[in-house]
Fold this protein.
Amino acid sequence: MQKILNRVPEITIYFWIIKILATTVGETAADYLSATLNLGLGTTSYIMGSLLLIALFNQFRLKRYVPVSYWLVVVLTSIVGTLITDRLVDELGVSLVTTAIVFGLALSAVFVIWYLREKTLAMHSIHTAPRELFYWAAILLTFALGTSAGDLLAETSGLGYAMSALVFGAFIAIIAAGYYYLRMNGVLAFWIAYILTRPLGASIGDLLSQPTENGGLGWGTIGTSIVFLCVILSLVIYLSLKQKRPVLSSIDHRD
């Protein structure tokens, strides 16, 4: 019987570290391209949206999980998700409350259709193209929703970036405790935590990149993006090498 290969990674500590780093890059890179380089939200959206489509095409072409391809799509999805919310709020004047509600309903609809068709929302069973399509649609909406929620709490409410990061971090800790100690459903815990890591990463990104007079640490968008991208790249290279070790070991043993 042929082994079914999953198209997404196992949920480990590395997964969550890279996910949070990617969400931070999504926030800072979008700001850098649209504001610092003066490309504007529209031009930046078209460029990053095109790159995301190319990356997704390559991702769907693969038959198994490949760290470089997968995490490239996540980073680009994070940037595009941020830009979608920013364009709605900054260019069209839609309130953050409205965008949060709309994206929350859209995400719920994706989950409902996904479950009705596939009878599962499990992240460890993404081994067909339709399931992966639902998976990436859900992830894009979690980034857009998380951006709305993060900006709403950090900026509109006046709570600030540091306190917002602590609040979302505390929520994630509660979900983790519910999963490990209270037998919370694993799939439900995963998706709630996945949504919450977006505003957590965005709050961290704003805290590091924003000027000190705005409540940040003044690293700047380019400095923060470069540091986090380097860490992501290092971890992805490590995971890629780790993934190949069993294959190399079996070859050595056979020889």
